[in-house]
Specification:
Amidase_dom, alpha/beta, AS_sf, 11 strands, 8-stranded mixed β-sheet, EC 3.5.1.4, Amidase signature (AS) enzymes, globular, single chain
Length: about 475
């Protein structure tokens, strides 16, 4: 396959690429080699930090030899090239630094349950994407690997912590890549890079074999995609539970891919452009994107009212800060075990050290109180949504922010999150409440940067159906950033 053919394939989403393999028009190996050509052309973006080309070629060859992908036996994504975020998606025997210099030689010893589901679906894994240390930042500029470049602008962050995955998808290297979301880490990069970013509801997938949940339920994993149907198909792949899981979300009545083909029932939608946290006013371009989306949803037959649930923003920020200090103390313990010694200060980011040190002194009572606060604010949020099905809000309160803003130490963990939430606004409340939330690229700044608009609901089905409606009414998949690997 020549480079022109490889670039042309970038225009197809994951289901479109999988259909070529199922029909026998291309092999999984040919799709993979085309993706590698596009990856090499996109090296300046620094989206992929670990090449797994040989394992990808072996996997693609096995799929081609068995004919399972050609027959569609593994589903609509069989044979499609795929990238894993280098955090929360362990693949045994492969490097796993998690963005940390202290873990620069770390190799995963087990394969996560969700990755097993990806492989069983025939997704061909051939690399791992850049992420900030331990997923702490809503930007992707770790000192270990350096910053990932946003394909839309070299001066705007691609977001984080799934910024490497977002940049690779936005540039057309792959149609989809994995991500994880603890305070917005799928939706923030989706907004910055003009993608679809769904955070599933709590318990939708499993953290087996290593954990029951992440950050006391704040973290959920899924993917970055360009189309809604790809997000639905990938959610079908990872939806479910493993033996020993502490809890699981109720299974959907039908597949998500089938559901997005159906028109949603009339939804009662509450909307605001104001932030639930203190800080500067929402950017006018963001306000315009949300208001235009509200108008479009009204035209599509949904009931849209102004308003929003309220929470105690201090209680939420304090609780999230405490949970992160303990999580970072765990990172220190992991690094100590890996290195056989305590890591030196220059082996962690400066902001990580702030969280680690606070984690050493966080008491059990503080941790228990943080969990209780999360639950109390979840109930308060739910009460504020009584009578409504969906919340429509900004993803980010600003245009894609600059580098060196969302990863800086602020003296305390609480001060760090004060700065983050002044930019991200509503994203963390979906994590706190366990609600599903999706960012859609429905706005654009005067200088051509993408703006995400966010929908939240109890369940993913209605979000994906609304997203498919909006995608049909205001298409975005054909928008191309300057750094498009298909050019």
């Amino acid at each position: 396959m020549d480079s022109g053919q490889a670039r042309a394939l970038a225009d197809l989403d994951a289901i479109g690429q999988g259909a070529l393999v199922a029909a026998g028009e291309l092999t999984a190996t040919e799709l993979l080699e085309a993706a590698i050509i596009r990856l090499e052309a996109s090296r300046p973006l620094n989206a992929v930090i670990t090449d797994l080309f040989d394992r990808g070629r072996d996997q693609a060859a096995a799929l081609d030899a068995s004919g399972s992908a050609r027959r569609g036996a593994s589903g609509p994504l069989a044979g499609v090239p795929f990238l894993l975020k280098d955090l929360g998606a362990s693949l045994a025997g492969t490097p796993e630094a998690m963005g940390s210099r202290a873990l620069r030689t770390h190799v995963a010893t087990q394969t996560d349950w969700v990755v097993e589901q990806y492989l069983s679906a025939g997704l061909v894994v051939f690399g791992k994407t850049n992420t900030p240390e331990w997923g702490n930042h809503c930007t992707t500029e770790p000192s270990l690997f350096g910053p990932t470049v946003n394909p839309w602008s070299p001066t705007a962050t691609p977001g984080g912590s799934s910024g490497g995955s977002a940049a690779a998808v936005a540039a057309g290297v792959v149609p989809a890549a994995s991500g994880g979301d603890g305070t917005g880490s799928i939706r923030v990069p989706a907004s910055c890079c003009g993608l679809v970013g769904l955070k599933p509801r709590r318990g939708r997938s499993s953290f087996a074999p290593g954990a029951g949940h992440g950050l006391e339920g704040l973290v959920n994993g899924h993917a970055l995609t360009r189309t809604v149907r790809d997000s639905a198909a990938l959610l079908d792949v990872i939806a479910g539970s493993a033996d020993g899981d502490p809890y699981a979300a109720p299974p959907p009545p039908r597949t998500y891919l089938d559901a997005v083909a159906e028109r949603p029932t009339r939804q009662r939608i509450l909307t605001t452009t104001a932030s639930p946290f203190p800080g500067p006013s929402t950017d006018p371009a963001v306000i315009a994107a949300v208001e235009e989306t509200a108008g479009l949803l009204g035209e599509l037959g949904h009931a849209v009212d102004s308003g929003a649930p309220t929470v105690d923003s201090d209680a939420v920020t304090d609780a999230i800060a405490v949970l992160h200090t303990v999580s970072n103390a765990q990172l220190h313990a992991l690094a100590t075990d890996h290195l056989g010694r305590e890591p030196a200060e220059d082996e962690f980011e400066a902001s990580t050290w702030v969280m680690v040190r606070e984690g050493f002194t966080t008491t059990g009572l503080q941790y228990a109180q943080a969990i209780a606060a999360i639950h109390a604010q979840t109930r308060r949020f739910a009460s504020g949504m009584a009578g409504y099905d969906v919340l429509l809000v900004p993803t980010l309160l600003t245009a894609p922010p600059p580098y060196a803003l969302l990863d800086q130490p602020r003296g305390t963990t609480r001060a760090f999150f004060d700065v983050e939430f002044a930019t991200t606004g509503w994203t963390s409340l979906a994590n706190v409440t366990g609600r599903a939330a999706i960012s859609l690229p429905l706005g654009i700044t005067d200088d051509g940067l993408p703006i995400g608009v966010q929908l939240m609901a109890r369940d993913e089905t209605v979000l994906l159906q609304l997203a498919a409606q909006l995608e049909a009414a205001a298409p975005w998949a054909d928008r191309r950033p300057p750094s498009w690997s298909g050019a």
